[in-house]
Amino acid sequence: MAISSVLGDLVKQFEKQYGEAKKANLERYAEAKGIYDEVIGMFQPGGSFDIGIEKQLGRSREQAVAQGTQALVSSGLYGTTQQAGLGLKFEEQIGAPMREKTETYRVGQEAQAMQNKAGVIERRVDEYPDYSTIANLTQRAAAGPSRTNYSAPNQYGVASRPSTRGATAGSSQQARARSNPFM
């Protein structure tokens, strides 16, 4: 099999794997953005957070009015104008302050979710393969083993020379071997 055929197959395999990885990254990115969109929607006015708070306030209001009515019945004041003011009293003492607090909380949570989404978008980096390194490796492989004194380039495209440590006849390892009979 010719070296150009092998290199062509490697390049095709690389391109296929790169395409699959890029597709998976795009899907994860879209999913993350979608999650933040859901959270932002939940905290927008009229979102599920507001709906839940209003339901809770409605149940609390019903309970407070029922308890107030029972207290009026027990004290003999049921048919008076005080009964009409029970709902208003609840709204002034509990409903309005609760809505104000939850609005402050809601706005803060919505802003935080928007900031988090912006951070995901801002930190996204699309990295593409370094085709010059691939071309360099392809040229070297096609040229054959003519440069035996150098290793293949590392991830930064830098080739290194093999170590010459211990390669000379008077090296320290050989000297130790001569002086130590157990080596």
Topology, pairings included?
Elements (H helix, E strand, L loop, with lengths): L2 H41 L4 H28 L10 H38 L7 H13 L28 H8 L4
Helix pairs in contact: 1-3, 1-4, 2-3
Give a brief description.
With 183 residues, the protein is mainly α.
Number of strand elements = 0
> Largest sheet, described in full?
none
Mean pLDDT: 79
Alpha-carbon distance between the two ends: 46 Å
The helical percent reads: 55-70%
- Which runs of at least 5 residues are low in confidence (pLDDT < 50)? none
**Structural class determined from secondary elements:** mainly alpha
SSE order, as H and E?
HHHHH
**Radius of gyration, in angstroms, nearest whole number:** 38 Å
User: Which geometry do the CA atoms define?
Assistant: rod-shaped
Q: Strand share of the residues?
A: under 5%
Describe the structure.
By secondary structure, this protein is an all-alpha fold. It has a domain at 3-123. The chain is 70% helix and 0% strand. The chain contains five helices and no strands. Helix 1 (3-43) runs antiparallel to helix 3, helix 1 (3-43) packs antiparallel against helix 4 (131-143) and helix 2 (48-75) runs antiparallel to helix 3 (86-123). The longest helix has 41 residues, at 3-43. It starts with a helix and ends with a helix. The relative contact order is 0.08.
Keywords:
rod-shaped; 183 residues; mainly alpha; 5 helices
